[in-house]
Specification:
Blueprint: E1 2-11, E2 14-24, E3 29-33, H1 40-47, E4 55-60, H2 71-74, E5 75-78, H3 90-100, H4 106-114, H5 130-142, E6 148-152, H6 160-175, E7 179-183, H7 187-193, E8 196-201, E9 204-210, H8 211-216, E10 223-226, H9 230-239, E11 243-246, E12 252-255, H10 259-269, E13 275-278, H11 283-290, E14 298-299, E15 302-303, H12 321-330
Helix pairs in contact: 3-4, 3-12, 4-5, 9-10
The chain binds adenosine-5'-triphosphate (ATP).
Adenosine-5'-triphosphate binds near residues 11 and 34.
Protein name: ABC-2 type transport system ATP-binding protein
InterPro entries: AAA+_ATPase (IPR003593), ABC_transporter-like_ATP-bd (IPR003439), P-loop_NTPase (IPR027417)
Keywords: ATP-binding, Nucleotide-binding, Transport
Length: about 325
């Protein structure tokens, strides 16, 4: 479980994260969304103690990450899947991580099986494809059987099989009672994976709520209607103050009236309806609508990805156990 309270991070004059409070609960997948440069990576780094908050605090299972006696068992993180450039085999790499963190060697085989790398476990990890590297990074994150897992853009660059695998894995990890916190730019993917959303814009909280509640906050959509009595349908919509326009496949798009108003009016007028479907915003549409004011980089009014994201520098004091393990393993 992760609890952020009044979290703030300032780089020089840039406020990257501003008074951010949210909770990542066990047993569900929480999606972390925000336009480019909105502060997602900075927030994740603060959760792991890799960046020091300018104000506020973030706790993992009740205490700061850095104070955990077994930090890898508190949070298993995959922040940069491409970070594993090793001449060692996947097996030796995981063995080294396990040895450094005091994890029994027997666990290595277990996580290799969990991520489906058994066949290639003895091959040099440096030669792995992006998808295999991603699996290895996840195996490493799961070694200490963490109560919280945190993945930054885990499906970036993966093929459909890899995306499906990660989606199912995250759901599975949540079903085991873990808190799962995952950032992604792929809204359609988040809609399929996340139960809950934390949405930020310009470092500030926009939403901390279930996916459907977030979507329901968008402006009202129209209603798709089908009827064999087209003229009567037009008349009753106009009489009710709505607007009607032809849509695909012989259906009509009705604006300004609710499904209930259309259905009741049709019943009163004896007009048969073959379809009466409220149109719902997709998560992508909801995200665009609700973060429109929070997009930092815009061209001609349209959102555009950040062209520049500076590397984050850490002071030696900010190193955590996770970094030390990474250094140990890279040797
Ligand atoms: N070390 C740093 N020094 C100065 N500014 C920084 C530093 N790290 C991040 N920033 C700035 O803080 C803001 C938030 O950056 P961050 O990388 O956390 O956003 P993000 O939501 O992860 O972006 P993206 O989706 O593009 O990865 C951005 O404006 C970024 O330029």
């Amino acid at each position: 479980m992760i609890e952020a309270v009044g979290l703030r991070k300032v780089y020089g004059r840039k406020v990257a994260v501003d008074d951010l409070s949210f909770t990542v609960r066990p047993g569900i997948v929480t999606g972390f969304l925000g336009p480019n440069g909105s502060g997602k990576s900075t927030t994740m780094r603060m959760i792991l103690g890799l960046d020091r908050p300018s104000a506020g605090r973030v706790l993992v299972d009740g205490i700061p990450y850095a104070q955990h006696r077994n930090p890898l068992g508190a949070v298993g993180a995959l922040l940069d899947a491409k970070a594993v450039h090793t001449g060692r085999s996947a097996f030796r790499h995981l063995q080294a991580v396990a040895a450094t963190a005091g994890i029994p060697a027997s666990r290595v085989g277990e996580v290799i099986d969990m991520v489906g790398l058994r066949e290639v476990a003895r091959k040099r990890a440096g030669g792995f494809s992006l998808g295999m590297g991603q699996r290895l990074g996840i195996a490493s994150a799961l070694l200490a059987d963490p109560s919280t897992v945190m993945f930054d853009e885990p499906v970036n660059g993966l093929d459909p099989d890899g995306i499906l695998w990660i989606r199912n894995l995250m759901k599975h990890l949540a079903s085991e009672g873990r808190a799962v916190f995952v950032s992604s730019h792929l809204m359609s993917e988040m809609a399929l994976t996340a139960d809950h959303l934390v949405v930020i814009g310009r470092g500030r909280l926009i939403a901390d709520e279930p996916v459907q509640a977030f979507i329901d906050r968008t402006r009202p959509r129209g209603v798709t209607v089908r009827s064999p009595q087209v003229e009567q349908l037009r008349e009753l919509v106009s009489a009710g103050g709505g607007r009607i326009a032809p849509a695909a496949d012989g259906a009509f798009d009705v604006q300004g009236l609710s499904p209930q108003q259309i259905g009741d009016a049709a019943a009163r007028a004896g007009v048969a309806l073959h379809e009466l479907t409220p149109q719902r915003a997709s998560l992508e549409e909801a995200f665009m609508e609700l973060t429109a004011d929070s997009v930092e980089y815009q061209a001609h009014g349209a959102p555009e990805p950040a062209a520049w994201a500076p590397p984050v520098q850490n002071s030696p004091q900010q190193e955590t156990a996770q970094q030390k393990v990474a250094q140990e393993v890279a040797r």
